[in-house]
Structure formats: structure tokens, C-alpha cells
Design a protein that fits this description.
The complex is a heterodimer of chains A (about 350) and B (about 425). Chain A is an all-alpha fold and about 350 residues long. Helices cover about 80% and strands about 0% of the residues of chain A. The chains are: A mainly alpha (about 350), B mainly alpha (about 425).
């Protein structure tokens, strides 16, 4: 049952990156759009993500609940040493979630719209940036439970070249996912071309950010190369991801977008597999001591069992409903909120 | 302000903010579904318009409640890591189920808000009902987790170790039912009075009278039914607290000395130094009766417990008095309203009746906040009653006070914006909703 719980944890992180990521990315694209095309970007984007907007963010809740019920020591450690980036991320989530809804549901469309839009765009950049920083810090081994100085314990645990690079990489990935997702939702050829172009730009940005991450890993003495090439599974994943990158580029330049979503989703999945496979079962690396392992720092057996049953039972309700939601609004014209 | 007080204040602020949005998000969908049902059954377009207007309210409150709930799921660890390290695996069961309920609510809301004229009309209506049902389930589950902090169960505490953990037994702790019942009825009553009051105000202003009257009638019936049932649930809760947490009951009632034929203390200023209450009205024997069902039974007072496990008596007592007082006020309005419906239907049009409801707009929510204060402050100094002190659970990170300031600023601005949005929704009824 422990493995069921771990699988759910992994899957909810992946789904949050994919679905929540595309959702964050929509805001990043809006942020990067020229003044003239902002409105259009916004309209297409809203049409694409409106109905599944709230559901996209539930994956984070599922992941965090699994963590605090099943792996409380890991949850508590992260909460203490990454308090500051977590708080910033939360403020981003609050600002973004409310701004998006308020923009849509404000009965009077006036200057407040500008406030909502600005808030939405900035928080769409900040939130994934800090999500990435948190992920980067978790693996970087800079968290130091022995630290006595404030800066060492609570600032340098996350503020470093490597975590920040991972943050930037995450944000670009989100923008890329959003562009790819929205291409499939566009209704006119002009819209389609615009988002194909955005996808190209964002994929270039993501590659640049990936180079930055490699450089940062080198500078910060983080064995990233070993994680990616230290075992056959990770190597296979990295190679597949690289090959699919070429395929994707060809598709993007030819303007054939049929397989694009699947390729993009697969790339992110492969990347997550490559990284987590080498780290398993450690979730959090610590400075100078053994990392926090999912196999050791787990709740009691009864708890894990009950949690697994709850997750399995929950899936029976959630997954069909979620698929039906995605299916219904994919097949329909213009979902307009009422 | 020291970090411990800052952490408690931030938690109180976050919960106090979230509770309003979750109450409305939990109850409004039912109002909406009733109105929607009437539209489908009668074909009266006004009901459709009311439904649409309310569904936007639900969307605004759900979005705000969802993010403030996300914040809370992190704050448990950010502020109380020592608590979560031990409590997570024990009382986490309701949270993992709540995750499912919340997810379903979000999916159902997607169907409902975007599904007008797209699905079979009864399927569409049903998704609205699901929003309410899953919201209600979430509420019950979260309260069950809080109840565990008041009534720890599902583990053995041996030499500082938490052994034999049983998450199911923890979920069905002794307090879950009375607390959940009280909370659901409170949400119903508070939301009902707030919604009914807003529509009553608009009728008084003679704006879109038909629209607001239909809306008022639906909300008022729910509010009044809740207000009448709530004292019964309150009685169950009080008897339960008397048994499980006598020190909390003593603080609520400012009952300092253990005695038979204990008096019920109304009002007054508790004096914790001299263990007495000044300027209070005392009803002999009434507390014994309320707590134990007998006028003579002895009621444990604060003197039975060492000072270092006393909750802050004054705050708990004042909050309790406010809650009960406002509850009684709503009960009176409710009885009066049902009498009107039953015998004096002509009064329904009277301005003073509507004014009464207008005054009651904030009353339910003040009572909710007061009640929440009673249960949380009344549990102090414990975070897990009798097991772990709140002070021992707080994060080692210094500087929480700044975090508290930031969250205060965020929640205050959000409250202002939500008020503005609601004001605008109501103002625009004519343009957006009240159309044939």
C-alpha cells in the first residue's frame, strides 16, 4: 500500500506540473504578449482553461495532503526550512486564483480589470518560479537542519544559483505547455499560427533555461549530470526526451500540431522520471546528512493503508468526472461562463 | 508581538477569513439548486435569473475559499510543524477524504457554471446539487479533523510517543458529530440571514422587487430553519463539552468554583486574578441543568484545574456570550417569520419585517466567528487537548510577525474586493439578471 501512496504522490506532482503548469503558463503568455495581442491571447486562453480552471489546482492539494498524512516528517522539514519560498508561492496562488475569478465575475468592467489582469500576470510568473525554486531546493541538498544561523537555515536553503535556475526553467516549461495546450483549442488559423509561434519561442526559452540549470548545477557542485546519466533508466528517459524534442521542432515548423500535446506531455513526464528514478526513495536531500526517504519517514502502516484506500476510492469518483469534464468542453463551442 | 503570538494570530486570521467563504461556498449552492429546481418546474424566468445571479456569487466565494483553503493546508506545517509531524498521520484521514470532496466540487462547479444550455437540463441541475453536497462533505470532514484536536482519539500516548495509530478511530472521535452538526447549522443560518438580508434591503429600496422577493423567500426559509434547529445542536455541544473538556466549559461560562446548583452567568466581566465575575446576572441552578440536565448536579469549575491549563477566560466567556446572544436573536426572528408565514401572510409585505432581516445581515457571521473563537481559544493552552501544548508546536523560524502582517494585508484587501464585487453584482441585477 505504501507504493500505491507513493505512486499517487508522484502522479499528482506530475499532473500538477502538466495541468497546473499549463494553467500558470497561460498567465505567463499573457504577460509576454504584446499590448495589442493581449486581449486576444486572454480570450483564447480563457476559452481553453475556464471550465477546468479550478480542477487544475486540486492536484497540489492532493500532493500536499499525501505528504502531511503519509510522510509527516518530510512535510514538517520542508515547511520549516523552505518557509519563505512556500509563503511566497502561497501568496502567488492566492493572488492568481482570486484575480482570475474576479476578472471574470466582476459585474462592472472598469479600471479594476487592469488591476485584476496585472495581478494575474505577475502572480502567474512568480508562482511557478517559486514552485521551481522549492523543487530545486528540495533536491539540491542545501537544506541544513544543523544550521544555527538564520541565513543558513532559512535563506540559503533556497536562495541559490541552482534553485533559482530551476525556478526559471519551471516557468518557461509552464509557458511552453500552455502554448501547446492552447494551440489545440484555437478556432481560427491566425490564432493557431500565433500560438504555434509562442510555442516555438517558449521551447527555445525552456532550452536556454535548461542550459542555465546545467551551468548552475556545475557552479553549485550539484551532481545533476550523475542524476541524469547515472543509471540506464534515466539515460533512456533523457535520450527519448531529446529525440522527441527534434520531432517536436519539426512538427512546430511544419505547423502540424496533431501530436504536439502528447509529445510535450511525454517530455515533461520523461524528465520527471529521469530525476526521480535516481533519487528514489529520497524525496528531500539534506546537507551533510542522509536525505529524507519515503520508505523510512512514513506514517504508521494503518495510516498508509487508510490513505491508499482513500486515494483509490477517490479516484473512482474523480477521474471519470474529470475526463467527462475535459471531454465535454473540448467537443463544444465556446464555453461561456454564466 | 512575539513569534508565538504572531503565529497564533496568523492562524486565527486565516481560519477566520476562510470560514466565511467556506460557509457560503457550502450553503449557497443549495439555495441556487432550489431556485434552479423551481425554474425547471415552474418555468418562471425569475427563478432562472435568481439562479444565475447566485451561481456567480458561488463562483466568487468558491474561488476565494479554495485559495484560502490551500493556504491553510500549508500553514498547518508552516506555523505548526511539530504538531503536524505527530498529528498528520493520526488526524489526516478526514483531510485525505476532503481532498476528494473538494476535487469533485471543483469539477462539478466547472460543469455547472459553464454548462448552461449545453447538457440535459436535469444533469446540469444535478451538477449544481453535487457542488453543494461535496461542499457539505468537505465541511464535515474538516470539522472532524478539528474535533480531533479537542477530543484526541485513535492512538496511545506513551512516554511522549504516539503509538497504535488508528486513523479511522481518530476521525470518528467523540466530538466530530456534535461539532460538525453545530458548524453545518451555523453555516446554514449565517449564510441564510446574510443572503436574505441583502435581498430584503433591495426590496426596501424598491429595486427589482419580484426578483429580490423570490430570492429572499428561499434564503429566509433556510436561515430560519437553521436558527430554530441550532439551539438544540448547541445544547448537544454544551453537554458534550461539559463531559469531554470541563475546563473549556468552565471558561465559556466563567464558572470559577466547582459547585452544585451551579448558576448560569449572563454577561459580566471575568476577573481571572480574583477568580470571580463582576456585574453578572446569575441564574441559580441553570448551568447545572444546561450542562448535565439536572438543576442540582455539580459542575466542575476552573478551580479544579491548575492555572497553567486554564484557557484565557475572559475572551472565551465574551465570545461565548456573543454567540449565544446572537443565536437567540436569530431564533426570535425565525420563530416570528414562521409565525408570519403560518398566520399573518399580510405581514410579509411589511417594511419593518424586511428591516428586521436587513439588520440581521452580519449577525450570523459574527456568531460564527465568535463560536470559532470559543472552540479554539477555549482549547488553549493545548493544540492537542491534554497532549501537546500550542507553544511546543510552533515553528522555530523567527520573524513570523512579518508573515502575519503580510497575510493581514492580503486578507483585508481581498475582503474589500469581495465586498466590492458583491456590491456590483447586486447593483447590476437589472442589467445582468432581471431580464425576461
Amino acid at each position: 500500500m505504501l507504493y500505491v501512496v507513493m505512486a499517487y504522490l508522484w502522479a499528482s506532482i506530475l499532473l500538477y506540473v502538466l495541468m497546473g503548469g499549463a494553467d500558470f503558463g497561460a498567465g505567463i503568455l499573457e504577460f509576454l504578449s504584446t499590448r495589442k495581442s493581449k486581449d486576444q491571447t486572454r480570450r483564447v486562453m480563457y476559452r481553453a482553461i475556464g471550465p477546468i480552471w479550478e480542477a487544475n489546482h486540486m492536484w497540489l492539494i492532493i500532493a500536499i495532503v499525501i505528504l502531511f498524512v503519509g510522510f509527516p516528517v518530510i512535510y514538517a522539514t520542508v515547511s520549516v526550512y523552505l518557509h519563505i519560498p512556500l509563503t511566497i508561492m502561497l501568496l502567488g496562488i492566492v493572488a492568481r486564483g482570486t484575480a482570475f475569478s474576479f476578472r471574470n465575475y466582476d459585474a462592472v468592467k472598469d479600471k479594476m480589470q487592469v488591476v485584476y489582469s496585472k495581478t494575474f500576470m505577475y502572480s502567474s510568473v512568480i508562482t511557478p518560479l517559486f514552485l521551481g525554486i522549492i523543487a530545486g531546493s528540495a533536491v539540491s541538498g542545501k537544506i541544513d537542519p544543523q544550521a544555527t544561523h538564520f541565513l543558513d537555515a532559512y535563506i540559503f536553503s533556497w536562495l541559490g544559483f541552482f534553485p533559482v535556475s530551476v525556478g526559471i526553467f519551471t516557468a518557461t516549461i509552464c509557458g511552453f505547455l500552455a502554448a501547446v495546450f492552447i494551440i489545440g483549442e484555437t478556432k481560427t488559423e491566425t490564432e493557431r499560427q500565433r500560438f504555434i509561434q509562442k510555442a516555438r519561442h517558449m521551447s527555445l526559452a525552456a532550452i536556454a533555461a535548461a542550459v542555465l540549470v546545467l551551468a548552475a548545477a556545475h557552479a553549485d557542485n550539484i551532481p545533476l549530470a550523475h542524476w541524469l546519466f547515472g543509471n540506464p533508466v534515466s539515460i533512456a528517459c533523457v535520450v527519448l526526451a531529446a529525440v522527441s524534442l527534434i520531432w517536436m521542432w519539426v512538427s512546430l515548423f511544419r505547423g502540424s500540431t496533431r501530436w504536439l500535446r502528447i509529445i510535450a506531455g511525454a517530455q515533461i513526464t520523461l524528465l520527471l522520471v529521469a530525476i526521480t528514478y535516481e533519487h528514489y526513495p529520497v524525496l528531500i536531500n539534506l546537507k551533510d546528512t542522509e536525505g529524507l526517504s519515503l520508505l523510512i519517514h512514513k506514517g504508521s502502516d494503518k495510516t498508509i493503508h487508510a490513505l491508499a484506500v482513500a486515494l483509490l476510492a477517490g479516484s473512482i469518483f474523480i477521474l471519470p468526472a474529470l475526463f467527462y469534464l475535459l471531454y465535454s468542453f473540448n467537443r463544444q463551442e465556446e464555453p461561456v461562463a454564466d | 508581538m512575539d513569534d508565538f503570538i504572531a503565529a497564533r494570530s496568523q492562524m486565527a486570521l486565516s481560519l477566520g477569513f476562510h470560514i466565511i467563504f467556506s460557509c457560503i461556498g457550502m450553503i449557497m449552492p443549495f439555495f441556487m439548486a432550489v431556485s434552479h429546481f423551481k425554474w425547471l418546474k415552474t418555468g418562471n424566468i425569475v427563478y432562472r435569473n435568481v439562479t444565475r445571479a447566485w451561481s456567480r456569487g458561488v463562483a466568487i466565494f468558491f474561488a476565494t475559499g479554495a485559495v484560502s483553503g490551500t493556504v491553510l493546508s500549508f500553514e498547518l506545517g508552516l506555523l505548526w510543524p511539530e504538531f503536524m509531524k505527530h498529528a498528520g498521520p493520526i488526524f489526516g484521514m478526514p483531510f485525505s477524504l476532503e481532498g476528494t470532496a473538494f476535487f469533485i466540487e471543483a469539477i462539478a462547479l466547472g460543469f455547472y457554471l459553464y454548462g448552461w444550455n449545453k447538457f440535459n437540463k436535469w444533469f446540469h441541475w444535478f451538477t449544481g446539487v453535487i457542488v453543494g453536497v461535496s461542499g457539505l462533505a468537505s465541511g464535515i470532514l474538516v470539522v472532524a479533523a478539528n474535533a480531533w484536536m479537542n477530543s484526541p482519539a485513535g492512538f496511545d500516548y506513551v512516554n511522549g510517543q504516539y503509538l497504535n495509530i488508528d486513523p479511522i478511530a481518530a476521525m470518528f472521535n467523540d466530538a466530530w458529530f456534535s461539532q460538525a452538526l453545530h458548524m453545518i447549522l451555523a453555516a446554514l443560518t449565517a449564510t441564510g440571514f446574510a443572503v436574505a438580508g441583502v435581498h430584503a434591503l433591495m426590496i426596501l429600496k424598491r429595486k427589482h422587487i419580484q426578483f429580490h422577493t423570490k430570492a429572499f423567500r428561499i434564503a429566509a426559509v433556510f436561515a430560519c430553519a437553521g436558527a430554530i434547529l441550532q439551539p438544540l445542536s448547541g445544547d448537544i455541544s454544551a453537554k458534550d463539552v461539559a463531559k469531554r473538556q470541563p475546563v473549556k466549559l468552565a471558561a465559556m461560562e466563567a464558572h470559577f468554583k466547582t459547585e452544585e446548583k451551579a448558576a448560569l452567568i449572563l454577561g459580566g466581566i471575568p476577573d481571572e486574578k480574583n477568580d470571580t465575575v463582576h456585574y453578572a446576572l446569575k441564574i441559580p441552578g441553570a448551568l447545572s441543568f444546561l450542562a448535565h440536565g439536572n438543576f442540582k448536579t455539580s459542575v466542575t469549575g476552573l478551580d479544579a484545574f491548575p492555572k497553567d491549563v486554564h484557557p484565557p477566560v475572559a475572551i472565551t466567556h465574551y465570545a461565548f456570550q456573543v454567540m449565544v446572544g446572537l443565536g437567540m436573536l436569530m431564533l426570535l426572528i425565525a420563530v416570528f417569520y414562521f409565525f408570519t408565514l403560518w398566520r399573518k401572510r399580510s405581514w410579509l409585505e411589511k417594511r419593518w419585517l424586511l428591516k428586521l432581516f436587513t439588520i440581521a445581515i452580519p449577525v450570523g457571521f459574527i456568531a460564527v466567528e465568535a463560536g470559532w473563537t470559543v472552540t479554539e481559544v477555549g482549547r488553549q493552552p493545548w493544540i492537542i487537548y491534554g497532549i501537546m501544548r500550542t507553544r511546543d508546536a510552533v515553528t522555530p523560524m523567527p520573524g513570523i510577525v512579518y508573515s502575519f502582517y503580510i497575510f493581514t494585508a492580503v486578507y483585508v484587501s481581498l475582503s474589500v474586493i469581495v465586498m466590492l464585487l458583491l456590491y456590483r453584482q447586486v447593483k447590476m441585477v437589472g442589467k445582468l439578471y432581471d431580464v425576461a
